[in-house]
Design brief:
The chain folds into two domains: about 5-100; about 105-180, no CATH class. It has four helices and ten strands. It has helices spanning about 105-110, 120-130, 135-155, 160-180; strands at about 5-10, 15-20, 25-30, 35-40, 45-50, 55-60, 65-70, 80, 85-95, 100. The chain has a ten-stranded antiparallel barrel with strand order 1-2-3-4-5-6-7-8-9-10. Helix 1 packs across helix 4 (about 160-180) and helix 2 (about 120-130) crosses helix 4. The longest helix has 21 residues, at about 135-155. It is globular, with a radius of gyration of 18 Å.
């Protein structure tokens, strides 16, 4: 899928796809011989995904042209590639049996209302430059990406959730800024290789 957002398993083997704001953008239904048939949110067929040789999937548009592939990741997610073999994204397993398609700071984005604001830029720099530089930091990040999308989905629209995290995040951001971590526009590093 290549977008930021998440995918969750439905009751009948289907996988529902949501954008970063939680709006449903499509679904994948099990195909006859394995794989999935993909549909947009209006029910129009957009293509299909067939099982690959080593546990991943090959993705095709409605005309049968290959558009990319997905290979199993180390921690149960998928690494997604375009048709030229260039890595486009990774997905991490979440607590609902689906996948999250983002490197996003879910809780901070929920609290501050944007992925692109000074507070979240600071936290993203800390994630990439400090946590992402060690194996235990990367393990923490993967655990966070497995849990936080579900927490935000369940509680992100409640005042108590945002209030509970805002003070903690404000203090952390201030501490990081005082240590020299910048709060200017930032492009995420691709530390997961």
């Amino acid at each position: 899928m290549g977008n930021k957002g998440r995918s969750e398993r439905g009751m009948f083997g289907n996988i529902n796809h949501y954008d970063e704001n939680g709006k449903k953008i499509g679904e994948s239904r099990p195909g006859m011989f394995g794989g999935y048939v993909n549909y947009d949110n209006n029910g129009n067929k957009t293509g299909h995904s067939d099982p690959g040789m080593f546990g991943g999937y090959n993705h095709y548009d409605n005309n049968g042209k290959k558009t990319g592939s997905s290979s199993p990741g180390v921690f149960g997610g998928y690494v997604n590639y375009d048709n030229n073999g260039k890595k486009t994204s990774e997905s991490s397993p979440n607590m609902t049996g689906g996948y999250s398609h983002s490197e996003g700071c879910y809780v901070a984005t929920c609290v501050y209302g944007s992925y692109d604001c000074p507070e979240v830029w600071t936290l993203r720099r800390f994630r990439d430059n400090t946590l992402g530089s060690t194996w235990y930091g990367r393990t923490f990040i993967r655990l966070y990406y497995a849990i936080s999308p579900t927490l935000v989905k369940w509680f992100g629209k409640t005042k108590w959730f945002k209030k509970m995290w805002k003070g903690k995040l404000d203090r952390m951001v201030k501490k990081l800024n005082n240590k020299g971590v910048q709060d200017t526009p930032y492009n995420d590093k691709q530390w997961r290789k």
